[in-house]
Amino acid sequence: MNDLKQKIEMAFDSIDINIPEDNRMIINISKDGVISILSYLKNAGYEHLALISCVDLINENEFELVYIVSAYMKRDDEFHDREKQNIIIKTRISRKKTRFMTVINIFENAEPYEREIYELFGINFQGHPRLKPLFLEIEYEMPPFRKNFDTRKFVDDMFGNIPEIEGH
Amino acid sequence: MRELELYYGPQHLGMVGNFSITLNVEGDRIKKATANPGYLHRGFEKLMECRTWMQNFPLVCRINVVEPDHIELIYSMGVEKLAGIEVPEKGKYIRSIYLELARVASHLFGLWAYSNMLGFDTVANWAMYHRDLILDLFEELTGARVYHIYIRPGGVRRDFPDGFEDKIIETLHTIGGKIPDYNSTFFDNRLFKKRTKGIGKLDRENAKKMGAVGHAIRATGMKYDIRKIEPYAAYDQVEWDVPTRKGGDAYSRLLTIRDEMIESVHMIFKLINKMPKKGTVYTKTPNPFKWKIPEGDAYVRCESSRGELGLYIVSDGGKKPYRAHFRTPSYSHGLTILENILAGEDIADVGNIMMSLYVVAPEIDR
Description:
A: alpha/beta, five-stranded mixed beta sheet, elongated, B: alpha+beta, Cytochrome-c3 Hydrogenase, chain B, three-stranded antiparallel beta sheet
């Protein structure tokens, strides 16, 4: 893990890497560097994109996008340390300007993840071939997974006016 | 020939679960498939942000209806990692035994769905009956048949009752004794082979590219199993092997699942033999209403019966999770891989391929 850290630090400047525990590496990078670090990691053998997640950091007025990559096995029946490692890449984008680049060209299975984040957080992934709703049935005024979406008020508006059934 | 649009599911007879696929067909041949999830989207990840750490258990186990136990485990593992809780030795063994039972039950349920789809009603009934025997065990252990909420942060809820190990062994012998019958009626059957060999082929390169995990990648020959790669619970305490196949088609996937079941049963016997007789089964945790977990984030993963299951969880130091995001195996299997491998196949094989990939709709929607 430390070797990889050194290699990445050599290849990229202004990058913040820490290893909080065994087999987990957290890379903080500015939003312009995400594509290049992901392709670098893919070429280094970390070709399994496990998850793309998004965290709404409302107090800092930013979204944090989280990419988690790991490696498949090199040989079919030999276990190495490399598969144990999960690399977590974090980047921040402004809550006002919710645009980002798609990573489908690097990881094909990023497609539904990006669609989900577009729908639930309202982040627009440039270059995504079909950025349309994935789960939700109706359109919301605000993407519903944002922290300032008032779930309770929405439930009251949606279901509060249903008339009671007679006899109850 | 004219191209038509065909809606396959959620009401279609060949569909298992609340999921739908829009097929563009030319005659009997599929040109393009589009998956439409969302019939079971309940917004659990958002709801979890409004409940305390312990209150979330009834929610998380409903993320996968067929096999809730691994979701309980992954959530417990996430909380344990954030709060720095250790699991006692006996708790780890009990977790492993319980999870392997859940894996067998889930595979039997999958076998029911699959054999039903191919028209093997007898096998389907056997599988359902044998799953029920395992549910009886769960009922005795936890009080519930489907949603057990047995695993908790720090261990498991309670110890095995007296003589429970013997009951597990007896039940597994009953199921294991039926394996020759399963083989002769189903797995060695000419019809089964005809319907599955070469269908839904997923080669190694495509599997890697589209994020295949679990039995989908093991059916291409790779022993990719999180239980071996990053052992949790007591999986590093006993000897066991990861079953694989080479073909990458529906046939190989089904046989991988069968071998995995057999391996799980052997593993349970070994775990029961090695389990410590005395000791606590859980570490005490603070009052759930006042429990605050230190600020931080964690990614944990385990091997559910469908493949790599992960959880990215963030705490802001409060009583509730700040964000939780589940990486479920059916997500890439059902949305990316299914869409890709359906192109070029027959309409009759849609349900077949979908079940061989083991897609469960609630896991996709969450």
